[in-house]
């Protein structure tokens, strides 16, 4: 695991940033890409044979929950990074809805300190408001100086339009994105699943599409007024896609991401009252899934993010209405996208790398997303011809609340490289 020099031999490089899709070698020296070419010589470097494997710029997850501090029974920064590495992610964004929340510079530094030596880079996302209570802006300048990669009150929407307007302006001043969980709390109150005929049949209070669409409409209008950029997380409705597409066509600086579960699963799974399918936003309909996929293909949707949300059995193995919202996502994301989108001809591998590495890097303003010479030495090595069965008992996350239990997934992450350091998956 020397950080000095690593030679990845004979891998099939997929790098849309340079329009590269070919077999080649990569030499990483002192944590950066030194050479890319054929028949490179080790000259003392550690050698990894990537024959028949795909080699990507390291995957970057824009939206994840590591639970530390305050929720260590569900996940820690260490176990979260191990889970992320097993899924091919070399960098992850840690959302601030911890206990206490990441709402000052000291807490940003705490996360960075705890992440030292982990198997993935951790980018702390700071809260937008103190305590995530929606009332008072945090000290964005201090938090950005401490290492916050962006700002979000994730888990909650920002109800006050004045606060949102000021947040966008201040975040723009410090050069960091605002990543929004779009939810109208009053409309969402008590909601358990997508509002539909099925929710009525099951006797569960519904979460209508309006809970997501209305705040997106408001915030795109604010972003257009201020001329600042805005990122919407985990879009789930056809209306959200249409609003964002229209805003982009008007020149609004808006980006967004979608999760693998919203791209592949529907509300029908809730019929079983299995709490693994309880999440926010909720699983929607087949029509919503189709529109999300269309939005991904035409670049209305810029990125794929997991919204990795681990929960202990005490929070999930209860009655549906009492269960926590959220599912794990690190270790299944790439396989689910491979099975449901790549294998069906919906996305190509360059598309996947663009959505899971290049665009997240650009939106966040962090290094990565490319294997060009001089860039950071973060790499994902993937065997597309392997397969595995999803069993949370054999996964790295502390929690077992995966929505893909029992699925057979194609492909397997063989190794990741972070700053030139090789981590092999067992």
Characterization of the model:
With 426 residues, the chain is an alpha/beta fold. The protein has two domains: 5-54 and 376-424, Urease, subunit C, domain 1 (Roll), CATH 2.30.40.10; 58-364, TIM Barrel (Alpha-Beta Barrel). It is 30% helix and 23% strand. It has 13 helices and 18 strands. The strands form four sheets. Strands 1, 2, 3, 4, 5, 16, 17 and 18 form an eight-stranded mixed sheet that branches. The protein has a four-stranded parallel sheet with strand order 6-7-8-9. Strand 2 and strand 3 (32-37) form a beta hairpin. Helix 4 crosses helix 7 (210-226). It starts with a strand and ends with a strand. The mean pLDDT is 97.
Task: Spell out the key features of this protein.
2 domains, Urease, subunit C, domain 1, globular, alpha/beta, 4-stranded parallel sheet, 13 helices, TIM Barrel
């Amino acid at each position: 695991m020397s950080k000095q020099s690593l030679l990845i031999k004979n891998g099939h490089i997929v790098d849309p940033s340079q329009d590269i899709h070919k077999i080649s070698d990569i030499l990483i020296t002192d944590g950066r890409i030194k050479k890319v070419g054929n028949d490179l010589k080790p000259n003392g470097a550690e050698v990894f044979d990537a024959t028949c494997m795909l080699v990507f710029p390291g995957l970057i997850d824009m939206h994840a929950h590591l639970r530390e501090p305050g929720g260590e029974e569900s996940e820690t920064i260490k176990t979260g990074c191990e889970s992320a590495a097993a899924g091919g992610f070399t960098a992850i964004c840690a959302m601030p809805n911890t206990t206490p929340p990441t709402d000052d510079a000291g807490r940003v530094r705490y996360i960075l300190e705890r992440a030292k030596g982990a198997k993935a880079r951790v980018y702390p996302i700071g809260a937008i408001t103190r305590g995530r209570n929606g009332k008072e802006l945090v000290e964005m300048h201090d938090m950005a100086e401490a290492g916050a990669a962006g700002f979000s009150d994730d888990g909650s929407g920002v109800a006050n339009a004045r606060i949102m307007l000021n947040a966008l302006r201040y975040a723009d001043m410090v050069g960091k994105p605002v990543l929004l969980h779009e939810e109208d709390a009053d409309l969402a109150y008590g909601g358990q699943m997508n509002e539909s005929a099925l929710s009525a049949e099951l006797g569960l209070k519904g979460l209508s599409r309006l809970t997501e669409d209305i705040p997106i409409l408001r915030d795109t209008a604010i972003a257009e007024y201020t001329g600042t950029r805005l990122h919407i997380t985990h879009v789930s409705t056809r209306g959200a896609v249409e609003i964002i597409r229209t805003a982009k066509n008007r020149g609004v600086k808006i980006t967004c991401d979608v999760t693998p579960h919203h791209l592949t699963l529907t509300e029908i799974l809730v019929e079983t009252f299995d709490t693994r399918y309880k999440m926010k936003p909720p699983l929607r309909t087949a029509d919503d899934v189709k529109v999300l996929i269309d939005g991904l293909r035409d670049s209305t949707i810029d990125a794929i993010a997991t919204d990795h949300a681990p929960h202990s059995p005490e929070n999930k193995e209860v009655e549906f209405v009492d269960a926590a919202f959220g599912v794990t996502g690190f270790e299944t994301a790439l396989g689910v996208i491979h099975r449901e989108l790549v294998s069906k001809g919906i996305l190509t591998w360059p598309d996947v790398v663009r959505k899971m590495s290049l665009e997240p890097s650009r939106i966040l303003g962090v290094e990565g997303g490319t294997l060009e010479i001089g860039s950071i030495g973060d790499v994902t090595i993937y065997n597309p011809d392997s397969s595995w069965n999803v069993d949370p008992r054999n996964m790295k996350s502390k929690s077992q609340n995966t929505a893909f239990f029992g699925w057979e997934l194609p492909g397997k992450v063989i190794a990741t490289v972070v700053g030139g350091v090789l981590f092999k998956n067992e």
